[in-house]
Amino acid sequence: MLNQRYRTALLLVLSLICFECAHAGYLENVKFRIVDEATQEPLKNRELNICRFVFFELKLGAPSPYLNKGAPWYITSVVTDGNGVFVLDLSAVKETHIVVEPGKPYNVTGFTRTSDLAGTKSADHIRVAGNIYDLRNGMVKIITGSGETEEKPFTEILLSAKKLDNELYGESRVVMLQFQQALRDSKWDEALGYCSDNVKSKANDYNSTEAFFRDVVPVEEIASLQQIQTSGGRYDRQGQQVEFHCFLRIPAANSEKAVSWGWTVGESNKGWVIDFETTPLQKRIEKETNRLSREAELAQARIEQLKKGIKFHLTALSKEFVIGQPMLFCVEMTNVSNSPIETDLTSHVMVNNPMVVKGPDGKVIPYVDTSYQTMARSEVIQPGETVALAAEYDVTSQYRIIEPGRYTFKFNCFTPSNVVEIDVKPGELSPADSIVESLLKILPEGWGYTRRVVSRKPTPENPSDKFVSVQLIGEGAKKGEGGGIFVNIHIYLTENEVTVEPDEFAGQLWGRCKWGPVYVRAYDVKLLWPDYREQIIKALDIKEVKSD
């Protein structure tokens, strides 16, 4: 009897294993098709690199890191057929965010192995934009912009790749590199052979081709370029780029600013040719230097006019200043001159460290908000007119004020405002400051951070009216610069459940802390901070922790 039961159980286990192995075959041959985003033409017979997503901040013109097959993020390579179709074996791939690198002239594309718009990890699903493919059942859920859904069978997963604008590729790249190499090798006639008829005609006015290039072209600067930068160009009626504008910066004597020199590579009836202005280089530099100097003089005169004609005034609005509560100011600007003054300060001035705040110890309180790109809008201020730059500016939204005591506040522009001294009373830290203080206890030495509180309109899916966003920035990797090692933490201030839309935040739900649900996304953080996840979970006391 025992042997019979043993044999029955063994057969059951073996049958389950065989079923799962057979059923898991859907991951071994996942069919994709990749097309040009604009034309929908398939990318035929093209090698694609399949890589794990890694965040990079590349300098203009730098090659794609996903072309490097020796990199740790590289997974495999495939070649498309004549219909742009390729097959991937995903059974052993554990990565969630996958990049597909088609090479120039196309930008990278890719997909995530997630089962919904909130980014829930799933080996059985693939998400491409608003399409969620169920690999196990062969169905795709199509989610429209209005939120409506449609399900239908699929046989292949469609990827689209966008053609890069202003990226040299194909024959245009070959001609540019051959022109550059000819200059490096002092092969002047060969270099001229790549140029337009207009350039060749001008070269005939010189005693030699070398004399022409030395007089007109920054030869050494072009020859030394590691990457040729492009900016803009010209397109044909089919949207294909037929001319690339290239540029470089040339140091100018007796000037702090460099001078821009440009040239083009464009398609003609003779193929791709190099073209540029044939004015003597030194003459161009002198002309441009004079223009830049004049602009600097006008800008300085403008600042002096504003210093004499504009007065800033800072007024405290809150009845009392208490730790953890908003600390409101009104910032006003008055034209004290006898003439109208045009200024763009009214549209963007209260960001990017606009104040000087000193604490009880006399030390400057750091600005902790993120950096912002702004768009200036000019406005004319009449004599005697006063305008509010900020009617209710909360200084705690941008500065770390967590200790009671006597503080000084000053609006800091080209000319400072009056100084306001205020006694800040003790109080309970705000959620934003409490979150930051918890994280600062575990932040590795040399790391930085930014913090901002974002107000939002509540929705049924997300009833919170604000969230706290904290970015922990890796050592030497300042925001907006190279490095790209950081952690983004979003905490929605609500006791209710939250469904985050993909355009609002694409991070992974880690769980819930005392202030609300915690969403996190991280880029290469383990390189500098191997146990960051465990430390953040402990520091914020995150409950209901989701699996990594």
Average pLDDT works out at 84
User: Mind telling me the C-alpha Rg?
Assistant: 30 Å
Top CATH class of the largest domain: Mainly Beta
Describe the biggest sheet?
5 strands, antiparallel
Going by CATH, the architecture of the largest domain would be: Sandwich
Q: Uncertain regions: pLDDT < 50 for 5+ in a row? A: 13-23, 57-61, 477-483, 501-506
Strand order in the largest sheet: 25-26-27-29-28
Structural class: alpha+beta
Instruction: State the end-to-end CA separation.
Output: 45 Å
Question: What percent of the residues sit in helical stretches (DSSP H or I)?
Answer: 10-25%
Number of helices: 9
Range of strand content: 25-35%
Offer a quick outline of the entry.
The protein has nine helices and 29 strands. Helix content is 20%, strand content 32%.
Description:
With 548 residues, the chain is α+β, with helices and mostly antiparallel strands. It has 4 domains: 24-161, Sandwich (Immunoglobulin-like), CATH 2.60.40; 170-278, Roll (Nuclear Transport Factor 2, Chain: A), CATH 3.10.450; 308-425, Sandwich (Immunoglobulin-like); 431-539, no CATH class. Helix content is 20%, strand content 32%. The chain has 9 helices and 29 strands. It has a 5-stranded antiparallel β-sheet, covered by helices on one side. A 4-stranded antiparallel β-sheet has the order 3-2-5-6, with no helix packed on it. Strands 7-8-9-10 form a 4-stranded antiparallel β-sheet, with no helix packed on it. The longest helix has 29 residues, at 281-309. The protein is flat, with a radius of gyration of 30 Å. The model is unreliable at 13-23, 57-61, 477-483 and 501-506 (pLDDT under 50).
